[in-house]
Amino acid sequence: MSGQSRLEVTEGSAEERAARGKAARKQVPRTSHAEFAATPERRDPVAVLEAQAETRVPELLHIRYGRMASSAFAFYRGAAAVMAMDLATTPTSGIAVQVCGDAHLVNFGVYNAPDRRMVFDLNDFDETLPGPWEWDVKRLAASLVVAGRDNGFTEVETSDVVRDASRSYRTSMATFAAMTNLKVWYARLEVADLLEAVRARTDAAQNKSLRRNAEKFAMRDNMQAFSKLTEVVDGRPRFRSEPPLIVPIDELVPDLGKVWVDSEAGRIFDDYRGTLDDDRRQLAGTYTYEDLARKVVGVGSVGTRAWVALLLGRDGQDPLILQFKEAQPSVLEAHLGSSEFERCGHRVVAGQRLMQASSDIFLGWYRGAGIDGVERDFYVRQLKDGKGSVDIPAMTADSMRIYAQMCAWTLARAHARSGDRIAISSYLGNGRTFDDALVAFAHTYADQNDRDHAELVAAIASGRIEATAGI
After folding, report:
1. Could you tell me if 1 and 334 are in contact, meaning their C-beta atoms sit under 8 angstroms apart?
2. % of the chain surpassing 90 pLDDT
3. Angle (deg, nearest 10), helices 433-462 and 61-69
4. pLDDT value at position 5?
5. Biggest CA pair distance of the chain
6. What is the average pLDDT score of the chain?
7. CB < 8 Å & 24+ apart, contacts of 213-219
8. Is 399 in contact with 148 (CB distance < 8 Å)?
9. Which residues contact 441 (CB under 8 A, 6 or more apart)?
10. How far is CA 471 from CA 3, 43, 389, in A?
């Protein structure tokens, strides 16, 4: 499948847009979304991962493969490129939105909005690009089955989880279709409201646990990160060395590192600040650079270049820790065409701002030459600002059903901000036709993911791939 990686302006009356959605059913029946079968030309999934490795840090790849091999769900988290390849062979309604590109259930979570209210939203946009809304929905749905199997749920239980998620996406999109544009734009899921809403659906112990977790996440701020990640050396705060996961710049490249920082740090921060709004640029300018370290993050992202920068404000107890994460072309671009943004970091930031209800005030990007002289794109955000996610392995089937509905509402809201919500809602309709199709797809693709995971494990066992477990 090929397409246009740009969003088109939504035009026409509400009635005309609804008619377009209904007409799309004739071209692409909702039952067709149940379909998935690997084509004879399908690439070896391990080869897809090896192709990604060509632009990554070689000495970190064994960590990525070790993490992905640990379970079928861990493999799924790191295999966005593999699923993008597969989704490109599936039917789509032809209605484009800004997609996350990696909307599995761990890429949702809580964080502190700029007004300091804790919200629940999507939180990973490395692969974002305009594309078919179905791709995000199918990636979320399959992740629910894969995670449910890892948790020991029955097939009936996982089917119920996916069906509830699909129903939530469908009914939420119908709600957004009836809203004004501004009401859609301002809609968000606040944790305080969420806790109140689920109180009647959970017992006292679960309610207590949810509130305790929310309070714990709220405390994850720059001061906590500062305390955990730094130590005082010669009277100055410095990042602790915890190789291979955290390696300070002066340890990574002892002599060249300091020279590079002295010559480049000022320019990098100036370029980055130039991508912020005027008021936030002013705020960022009140901080001064103190230290830099490479930090390994995530599962699928391992091997891309990720740095944490320590900056100080009014004194040594006013830290700001920013994460500079490498932005490479989206895995969707091979199937949908190149992004309209020249800089990959700009693509990520623009997509995040479009899909999230409230984004980090320090969210920005830059392009620059690294220590090796190679130019790369990065996006920038705070390392921690109330960020947290649920413990998926600890979930029961009932709690995953509730969580899946939250994720689906959030995904529908994100899609409604950028695409034709009226046409999508009209296409989905009021019945369970799409829901049933999505359940079938999710189970079929989870089977494929099991086979792909087994191929990675076999590649490690044969020596084709080097992997280290437990890091």
Report:
1. no
2. 84
3. 120
4. 63
5. 71
6. 94
7. 213/388, 213/390, 214/110, 214/118, 216/388, 217/110, 217/111, 217/118, 217/386, 217/387, 217/388, 218/112, 218/118, 218/386, 219/386
8. no
9. 33, 34, 35, 36, 90, 138, 141, 142
10. 39, 28, 20
Residue 272, classified by CB atoms within 10 Å of its CB into exposed (0-12), middle (13-18) or buried (19+), is buried
Q: What is the pLDDT at residue 148?
A: 98
3-state secondary structure of 272: helix
Is 435 within 8 Å of 203 (Cβ atoms)?
Answer: no
Count CA within 13 A, CB hemisphere, residue 209. Answer: 10
Residue 1: per-residue pLDDT: 43
Residue 2 has pLDDT above 50, yes or no: no
Inter-helix orientation angle 421-428/397-418, to 10°: 130
Q: Are strands 129-132 and 236-239 parallel, antiparallel or unpaired?
A: unpaired
CB 367 within 8 A of CB 345: yes
Q: Distance between CA 202 and CA 210 in Å, rounded?
A: 10
- Residue pair 111/78 in contact (Cβ under 8 Å)? The answer is no
**Residue in 338, 339, 336, 334 with CA at minimum distance from that of residue 349:** 339
Q: Is the peptide bond before 132 cis (omega within 30 degrees of 0)?
A: no
- Distance (Å, rounded) from C-alpha 31 to C-alpha 95? 17
Spatial CA neighbour of 446 closest among 79, 176, 7, 28:
79
pLDDT at residue number 393: 93
* Residues 428, 431, 434, 437, Cα dihedral to 10°: -170
Please report, as a single letter, which amino acid is at residue 223: M
Q: What pLDDT score was predicted for residue 325?
A: 97
Q: Where is average pLDDT lowest: 213-217, 285-289, 366-370, 372-376?
A: 213-217
- Distance (Å, whole) CA 333 – CA 99: 12
Tell me the per-residue pLDDT of 386-434, one tens digit each, with 9 for 90 and over: 788 889 999 999 999 999 999 999 999 999 999 999 999 999 999 999 9
Q: What is the mean pLDDT of residues 205-229?
A: 80
In 3D space, the residue among 169, 191, 194 whose CA is nearest the CA of residue 419 turns out to be: 169
pLDDT in tens, 21-56: 999 999 999 999 999 999 999 999 999 999 999 999
DSSP 314-351: SSTT-EEEEEEEE----TTHHHH---S-SSHHHHHHHH
Q: How far is the C-alpha of 352 from the C-alpha of 51, rounded, in Å?
A: 26
Cβ contact 461:467 at 8 Å: no
CA dihedral 333, 334, 335, 339 (to 10 degrees): 20
